[in-house]
User: Fold this.
Amino acid sequence: MFYYFDYEGCFESAVATLKRERRYRVFADLERKAGQFPYALWNGPSGSRDVVVWCSNDYLCMGQHPKVIEAMCAAAHNMGAGAGGTRNISGTNRAVVKLEAELADLHGKEAALVFTSGYVSNHTGIATIARLLPDCLILSDANNHNSMIEGVRASGCTRQIWRHNDLQHLEELLSRAAPGRPKLIVFESVYSMDGDIAPLEAICDLAERYSAMTYLDEVHAVGMYGPRGAGMAERDGVMARIDIMEGTLAKAYGTLGGYIAGTSAVVDAVRSHAPGFIFTTALPPAVAAAATAAIAHLKTSGMERAGQRAAVAGTKAALRKAGLPVMATETHIVPVMVGDPDLCKRASDLLLERHGIYIQPINYPTVPRGTERLRITPTPAHDTRLIAQLANAMLAVWQELDLPLGNEAGPTSSGHKPSRPPASPSHAVGREVARRKLSKQNDPQFLWRLAC
Ligand SMILES: Cc1ncc(COP(=O)(O)O)c(C=O)c1O
Assistant:
């Protein structure tokens, strides 16, 4: 008997579904130019040309800072390219040890542990910490990043999801748990898609009242907030009250890797039990040395943070003045609502092809359906000339695609209220877009433009 299974067809249909739902991702082939950020070379279908990048998570341009590049080159020359193994075998090297000391000092903790990415630190860190606590109850914010969600799942522990930034809901769940039961609250400080901030102090108050541990992801805050760049917990004066800080070296620190910082006991336990730490090759020494240089620099230099703040304020003001639907955020993240996956992709394509501006569209599942957006991250290198260019280009694209103007959209979920997507202003933008699309269904020019 001959059995046949269509393996290829299975994968093709998985991709076809994404294409049908307009969520198929196309990556732009870009070459960043060291020393010339935010310019990059775009290798597009009709050749190569310079573009301006407006969506990099190298938030402070540290990936191109001379001190960081120098540290990376020196370490590679001295210690070679790779780590040589897992930390248990031969991967612990001087550069990684120094990096962990720098991170522990940054967060005022006894110890720190480095992983190969922020994703891995959350995944294996949360799973291991929760598993080591008997019958642990995990309380996870509804808007947590996928790496945290997967870490919570991998723990196998009971989990309860509290409505995004909703303190009342968090307290309700905490108060229902047996008083002696170990509880782990996992949350972020800056939520990267809406750019809103968690009420850190109030969460710490609740954690202390109900004797829960706190695990805080500061991936989108480290380097940028607080007097030494240790993040929002430092800015808000609650760093000592957070049990486990988690961060990345790949965004404001411009390199690669992730970490947790906490007491020696918790860090040693994770080091000794976490599969995502034990069974994978360590960070190369050059990457560790570059990250250490970036952290050390940002501990004392406020110049990058000030430059970023100015660029963010200037960008928000220019886009609002142009009437674009900028979501109100207190942070460096500037989301501009589109509310439709097709149009979001079209807007991104037009910006790149016509205006030489690169902003990747953000679609489901990264954000809820109907809240598709362009996520802009101004850096110290985006000056007033580039900001004016961006505002003009976006306005032209908005007009060409007949996208709604003049809306000030708030975050999809914040203000410590339950997130109820249909009532939020950003969904209102989505509804308006859908209404306009429907009313144009018979307009051949509109259909042609969409199809182009
Ligand atoms: C909140 C959050 N945590 C963790 C990560 C993963 O960090 P990394 O890019 O270092 O893997 C991301 C990535 O964007 C993130 O947004």
Q: What stands out?
A: The first helix runs from residue 7 to 20. Residues 412-424, 443-452 have pLDDT under 50 and may be disordered. DSSP finds 17 helices and 14 strands in the chain.
